[in-house]
């Protein structure tokens, strides 16, 4: 199963037939493994990486470092859930170091992101402080290079 998942993680468009050929398993075995992985949420989502700048779409991304006061009996989980449920939040991670959560958010403008931080995030009781870093340029996302031409992943075979 892990082999199937690695293939799909690299390219979610890979068909069960292609995976079966690549792994030597039957198509039905691959389909059933994928179905089980979707059902138990091992596969959470199929995703496409899009370079929206090429489409002229402006979007502001920010990384927000959040310092938290853990809650009795729940630790960081309860407040993290309140934070990651905001629609502006794209990703949230518990991290080690000088802050507790790394939160990625998006908005149409810097002011929109700043408003989220000042009106929604920093007003939560367990939030002790935030530091906001605006992303200036995306070079690579989810393993895919966004700028320039993609180099082949394998060297061409010459005989």
Would you give an account of this structure?
With 159 residues, the chain is α+β, with helices and mostly antiparallel strands. The chain has two domains: 2-39; 53-137, 2-Layer Sandwich (Alpha-Beta Plaits). Helices cover 31% and strands 21% of the residues. The protein is built from five helices and six strands; from the N terminus they run H-H-H-E-H-E-E-H-E-E-E. The protein has helices at 2-10, 16-23, 27-39, 77-84, 110-121, and strands at residues 60-68, 89-94, 101-107, 127-134, 140-141, 144-145. The strands form two sheets. Strands 2-3-1-4 form a four-stranded antiparallel sheet. A two-stranded antiparallel sheet has the order 5-6. A hairpin with a 6-residue loop joins strand 2 and strand 3 (101-107). Helix 2 crosses helix 3 (27-39). The longest helix has 13 residues, at 27-39. The chain starts with a helix and ends in a 14-residue tail after the last strand. The mean pLDDT is 90.
